[in-house]
Amino acid sequence: MATSTLKKRITMAIVAPALALGATVGLASAPASAAVWSSCDQWGSTTLNGYTLYNNIWGSGAGSQCIWANSGTNWGVNANHPNTGGIKSYPNAKKVINKSITSLGSLSSSYNVTVPPSGAYNTSYDIWDTNYDYEIMLWVNKTGAVGPLGTSQGTLTLGGHTWTVYKGNNGANDVFSFVRTSNSSSGTVNILPILKWIKDTKGWFGNVTIGDLQFGFEITSSSGGLDFTVNSESVSSS
User: Residue 190: exposed, middle, or buried by beta-carbon count in 10 A (0-12, 13-18, 19+)?
Assistant: First the structure.
């Protein structure tokens, strides 16, 4: 998105809680069953079994959102963001890779999510190089009035899925978005061939070092309070 990339990068670099979103932040609630960790703070974060979780309410006009986690790979949010335009949040779990593309022997991830039938959001991987010059987004599902930044580069089958590819720039970095042509709530993505296609076939970047690999929900609206759940996730690399 045109405004999301830089703001996500800045907000997720913050280690101390910032100002809350006023009285609205505490309105959403975690699941009735006790979780290992939960937070309604705007920048709430924790690290569980090698994954760093972020509540990450960064967009203007946001409502309330609470994150809960049983582990770094089983977590969710209850979000109540108004039915207005603009991304409000990107709650996610981050795994740090810190390997160059040519030094990676493999990089893949599996996901299983439960998402609401209404609202406006996407479920996506957000992958960054260590200099934050390039952002690679892999949308596995989307609902409502949401769309990627940039212009369409056509359709491609790669990494176990068929995508429509978009290329754009938000003023801070280049953004390459791969939007699955049909929605999926579970599956496995072979990420390394996608990175190599960008590097070797298209030449859109060189042998960059992959840093953050995030997976979560980019939420534009969820009026009334909607639940987004990562039932399971795994990231593996060699």
Answer: middle
